[in-house]
């Protein structure tokens, strides 16, 4: 379990580091790659991926099984949203290279997750 948490934290750290490195090398005239996921779609996918990560972390599976489960469920999320891994990575890298954009996106992701939590916790 500690190994899975370490991997999750190292994944988050590497995303943060990648965003920082891309932000340092940003050129203002770089056109967005085509196709590019719209911000709202990226927010929704990121929220789903973070929920998936939380479910996998609490599943008490071995690290290998947890990783396999995460990757399979990630593919399912991409399939349901009609996107592929390369489109997600390309879009994430583009928004990460524009630091303020990624900050705004993650602010919206946090709001989305809080709204989902409030909806689940609301009395029926």
The helix-strand sequence is HHHHH
- Rg over CA atoms: 16 Å
Outline the biggest β-sheet. none
Distance between the termini: 34 Å
Domain DUF4296: 33-117
Protein name: DUF4296 domain-containing protein
Pfam families: DUF4296
Organism: Hymenobacter volaticus
Describe the structure.
This is DUF4296 domain-containing protein. This protein is mainly alpha-helical and 124 residues long. It has one domain. The chain has five helices and no strands. The chain starts with a helix and ends with a helix. The mean pLDDT is 81.
Provide keyphrases for this structure.
5 helices, 124 residues, mainly alpha, DUF4296 domain-containing protein, DUF4296, 77% helix
């Amino acid at each position: 379990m500690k190994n899975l948490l370490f991997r999750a934290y190292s994944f988050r750290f590497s995303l943060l580091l990648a965003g920082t490195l891309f932000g340092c090398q940003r050129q203002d005239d770089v056109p967005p790659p085509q196709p590019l996921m719209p911000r709202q779609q990226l927010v929704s996918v990121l929220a789903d991926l973070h929920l998936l990560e939380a479910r996998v972390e609490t599943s008490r599976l071995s690290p290998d099984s947890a990783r396999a489960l995460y990757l399979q469920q990630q593919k399912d999320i991409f399939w349901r949203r009609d996107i592929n891994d390369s489109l997600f990575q390309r879009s994430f890298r583009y928004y990460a290279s524009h630091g303020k954009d990624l900050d705004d996106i993650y602010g919206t992701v946090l709001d989305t997750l809080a709204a989902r939590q409030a909806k689940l916790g609301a009395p029926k």
